[in-house]
Amino acid sequence: MPDTSTFPDALPVLAAGRHRHPSDGGCAMEWASLLAGERWSDHPACTHPLLAHLTRAVNDLVGDRARTALARLVPTLVGLTSDDRTWSLEIATVTVRHALHRSLPADRRDLVVALLTLDRLLAASDGRPASRRRPATTALLATVPAGDVVWAERFTRAMGATRHVRGLSRRIVDVCVATVAAPPDADGALVAMLTDAVETCQALTRRAERDATVPGSSARAAGVPASAPERATARLAWR
Length: 239
Description:
This protein is mainly α. The chain has two domains: 4-48 and 62-77, no CATH class; 86-221, no CATH class. It contains twelve helices and no strands. The longest helix has 26 residues, at 187-212. The protein is globular and about 55 Å long.
């Protein structure tokens, strides 16, 4: 459990939206800016931009009771950032995993396309050929109707390599947040998705620290992949 002793004696009321001043309340990321000693902002430098984007989305979508659960996550957000471009892909992968578990049939194929795309883009940083999927990807695809997987595989092959990878992770996150938030009982699922993303980024931080102590791994420790990630196919016209 995060150490809540890092909280100041008094914090703004945790609330949805952006706030001009702490007296008006504060969202989870504005709390993080206070804890980090930064200027009051919902876009503090102390947190990875896509993780902060996901946090703001969850903060604004959940009800007041669920929002209090976010308070325990705020200290972990401070300093949780990296220049490693794979972080955005990993965060997006987390959201796809949660969205697939709650998706309607009409949304499922787009989500599988996103999962296959992210898996291939992460191949180089994993040190594996793009044709070999992560075990976690294979396990998740096993829960999806085979017809949807076959369709997604055919679609990505037919589309060819995309030239527009920049911004892809954020678009995927936005679609996944909307999917998870759609059912009426979404608060717990949204908090769980954000918690999973935070824990994934913590694991990435620990891996980078371990790599930094291994001779010859300076490029990986600095967030530079071993080779340029393969540009995989993607269905970019989400909605």
